[in-house]
């Protein structure tokens, strides 16, 4: 049994108005304890709706959501308890900051949860700030004086502080520079390794998903298009392209190499891994490259190499 | 919920009322609202109610949208009606209990006031449901144009209204987002007493204020970038034009108003 399961979820926005829109239809998924799930999909594919359903902010039109095997809507009055267990970090979460200090803002969630003991609260706030990569010195500052990336991390700390079993992040890296993005992703990965919690990461960025996710859920027009291990998902580059998504750029490079005739693996989707594969490939084909390339113009060389390299490159692994 | 607030929300459509010139719509709606107050007896009330029902059908807006708009004022309607019933004195006593005396006149009067309020809300929400904010403010700007002679900044006022109307849905959406974000952090907005509920609004209002200011600055910059300098010398993309249906509507409403004045003389007044 998964920590979160959904059965035939359906959700409609603006029911009964001219703007009525089916956002989710027939979504059944199961997520295991401790998994890192990436959720991708085009704008309007229903991924944000799905995550809001998972923590009970939206109520499904039909279908059910099980958390630890219990229907979260069994007792609608107790829905707040679900929100403490399934922590949701919204898009641009920095807009939720409101307190005088970062410290007080992070305390909002755990206080709502009912933690009154000062020392306990202090411990939680400091560990979550650390998880989110916030320096101690920032805790006493006003959240509005922080930089964009710091605000974002302060807001994430505010959700982690509820110590949820499942942490969902909706586009946590949107609008950040590459360094800010890397920091947040590293932090999330470290958090998950340390606490063993289940994490769902919603993103447009294939690169982000490829770096961190064990399994990937691909949403398209309110339905589950694919839900499989990361490497299997990115093997289906053409299928992803059909629904308006693409594989990570580095995978594209390897798919293109393959198309040109090089016998390389195509389940490459992180830079570190790509480096290894590329180096192996090059070192195996190097002797031939030199032999063949010398009499020809450099520009023509690449067309010949892959054909030659095929027999050799195949063994690279 | 927030999404239930529909006042000031445009619902696109192609009905007769949608197609009317917005200036004519404003004039006619004002006339109708004035005449709602002149309705004095049952025949004229019937005529007015009939007209409102007809207009609701013509607008092709789902009836429940009008009721949604009314939701916000039910309390006001019942409260004023209750006060009127208790305070207005008359001659025919209907009901007496200790200090409490209810007169027949009071019942009529409060009934009329309640129905008038409901009709006014329906008519004014019909105006905003069937007219896009841009049309609405263009019309207001044109109608108020004579005031420019006495140096009233009509264009600027209209622009402010356009912006305000334009940002109602945006702010509602923003409020809903912030509410969701705080609910996801366990904010309890639905229970507790008055003070607790008021306190629960702080985490929503502060981010909302901050983002409104941010939006205002961004909008000002964007307008500057597009060389906006106010109304002087500005022309319109879509110039408003009266058409046959506008004159038809005008005649129809004129007939209705005359009819109501006539019907008022047929039976004794039930309201003061």
Question: Any key phrases for this structure?
Answer:
heterodimer; A: 317 residues; alpha/beta; Rossmann fold; six-stranded mixed beta sheet; five-stranded antiparallel beta sheet; 11 strands; globular; disordered C terminus; B: 272 residues; mainly alpha; 10 helices; 2 strands; 68% helix; flat
Helix and strand pattern of chain A: EEEEHEEHEHHHEHEHEEHHHHH
What low-confidence regions of chain B span 5 or more consecutive residues with pLDDT below 50? Answer: none
Estimated share of beta-strand residues of chain A: 15-25%
Helix content of chain B: 55-70%
Radius of gyration of chain B: 23 Å
The major beta sheet of chain A can be summarized as:
6 strands, mixed
Relative strand content of chain B: under 5%
Mean pLDDT of chain B: 87
What spatial form of chain A do the alpha-carbon principal axes imply?
A: globular
Oligomer: heterodimer
Largest interface: A-B, 27 and 25 residues
- The strand order across the widest sheet of chain B is 1-2
Alpha-carbon distance between the two ends of chain A:
36 Å
- Low-pLDDT stretches of chain A: 289-317
